[in-house]
Amino acid sequence: MEFVDIYFMFNSLESVAAAAPTSVNTVAVGVELNVVSRNMVESLVVPTFRVGYTITTDALDALYKKIKSKGVTMTELLAKATALALAKHPVINSSCRGGNSFVYNSSINIAVVVAIDGGLTTPVL
């Protein structure tokens, strides 16, 4: 789903909600879920791009088979691999400010969305 689709989906949902009054049960969310929700919606305005190519994961698969019995998940391995790639290529972990400079982050933060009762959370690994 592209940004434009998501943007119009949110806007049309607001229009539909305003046009069709019904009885609803509103439940306040906690501070953490409110922050997660706000950050996820705000991230929709950040330009994104995708690059894809085929990779061989034989070494990753072998490592996973070796350490799976210790409780390590594939998600954790992929998060670690991502962190290592960001450390090796810091430009990927940077952001453009005002179109005339890059800010290189001194830390690497990986967040994975996790479903919890009543919503989502994004613990930083």
From TrEMBL:
Name of this chain's protein: Dihydrolipoyllysine-residue acetyltransferase component 5 of pyruvate dehydrogenase complex, chloroplastic-like
Pfam families associated with the record: 2-oxoacid_dh
GO terms of biological process kind: pyruvate decarboxylation to acetyl-CoA
InterPro entries registered for this protein in UniProt: 2-oxoacid_DH_actylTfrase, CAT-like_dom_sf, E2/Pdx1
Domain annotation 2-oxoacid dehydrogenase acyltransferase catalytic: ranges: 35-125
Alphabetized PANTHER family for the sequence: DIHYDROLIPOAMIDE ACETYL/SUCCINYL-TRANSFERASE-RELATED, DIHYDROLIPOYLLYSINE-RESIDUE ACETYLTRANSFERASE COMPONENT 5 OF PYRUVATE DEHYDROGENASE COMPLEX, CHLOROPLASTIC
Organism: Cicer arietinum (Chickpea)
Entry superkingdom: Eukaryota
One Gene Ontology MF term: dihydrolipoyllysine-residue acetyltransferase activity
GO cellular component: chloroplast envelope; chloroplast thylakoid; pyruvate dehydrogenase complex
